[in-house]
Amino acid sequence: MPKHKKGAYHLETSHAALSPGETIAMLRELKDWTQEQLAKASGIAATNISQLENGRLTLGKQRAVALGEAFGVHPATLLFSDIPLKKVA
To answer: Which long-range contacts (CB under 8 A, 24 or more apart) does 59-65 make?
Structure first.
């Protein structure tokens, strides 16, 4: 497996347009986390996690950074989930 430079990201082609909330829910489910577990990992209240996933709360930069750190993904993955990453990075 080739080694990547620290901070280097491999940009994939988007296969589906997901809202930020759908992306959060998908990543949470892939980690097999409850909303409460994600809340603990990110420092964002579980009620806000639910509202984000259901599109009733705007993600915003601070929440994207906190969630990105919890998931181990770049915040742009969450903020711009409907835009192909090649246009973001």
So the answer is: 59/20, 59/21, 59/24, 64/20
